[in-house]
Amino acid sequence: MLFKDTDHFFVTGASSGIGLAIGQAIIKNGGIVVGVARDEKKLIDAYSDSVYSNHFFAEPRDLSCDIDQLQRWVIEISNKYGKLKALVLCAGIQYTKPLKAISYEASLKLFNLNYFSEIQLIKAFSSRVVSCDDDPNIVVMSSIVALNSNMGLCDYGASKAALLNSVKSLALELAPRIRVNAILPGFVDTDMIQKWQGSHYEEFKNSINNHYPLGIGKPEYIADACLFLLSDKARWITGTGMIVDGGASLLNA
């Protein structure tokens, strides 16, 4: 087992996709997950199997709302379950819009969830009241879109680039007590991507497959990388952006 059975991991976006894969992988490796998502039923159902249920606690919340209250909420969480070993930030939204269709309201909603809420969660976790003293660490989900340009992803790419840059600054600020790292996934076959593309999903999926030397990704591939960064095996790694994209970025170099 990678983790102790007293290690509590706070995972956002835990009900589906990458967040779900990470939450389940943490439990399989001995940890306890405090999972966050907007839909309480979906969150609980995702961990209803007995393999997970005894090591999972659901904390439903829309992280894009009442952002100024997130710090207080996280302190309440740590008081309720115990100090946290790690913070894993997977919640996010994505849309494709050309410049002419971008509105301030839509941009703010995206940044509230993809960036501003995450900074407040990190701020809360940095407190000794919240995080444990045994190699506490943070892993955030950025994206290879933060490094590569894509039409229609102005807002999404900007939010993920902001997050990646913040990781580098925060790693310096929070060292040596807390490690901070990012994962930059390529295209991963998740419910969010399917919803984003709608009826054109299969066509979209097939069109980009040739751009991935190792094929398009699965959530468990990202979970494996996250487990490494969360574990003691990565105790000398901070401020990094780990690219996990099946080699796609090599073709865009």
Describe it.
This protein is of the alpha/beta class. The protein is 43% helix and 13% strand. The protein is built from ten helices and seven strands. It has helices at 17-28, 40-46, 50-53, 70-81, 104-125, 154-174, 191-197, 201-208, 219-230, 248-251, and strands spanning 8-12, 32-36, 56-58, 86-89, 137-141, 179-185, 241-244. A seven-stranded parallel beta sheet has the order 3-2-1-4-5-6-7, sandwiched between helices. Helix 1 crosses helix 9 and helix 5 (104-125) packs parallel to helix 6 (154-174). It is globular.
Main pleated sheet:
7 strands, parallel
User: In total, how many beta strands?
Assistant: 7
What average pLDDT do the residues reach? 93
Choose one word for the global shape. Answer: globular
Widest β-sheet, arrangement of strands: 3-2-1-4-5-6-7
Judged by helices, strands and strand pairing, the structural class is alpha/beta
Number of helices: 10
Strand content: 5-15%
Specify Rg, calculated over alpha carbons.
17 Å
Low-confidence stretches: none
Q: Helicity range of the residues?
A: 40-55%
Distance between the termini: 37 Å
Order of helices and strands: EHEHHEHEHEHEHHHEH
Please give a quick description of this structure.
By secondary structure, the protein is an alpha/beta fold. It contains 10 helices and 7 strands.
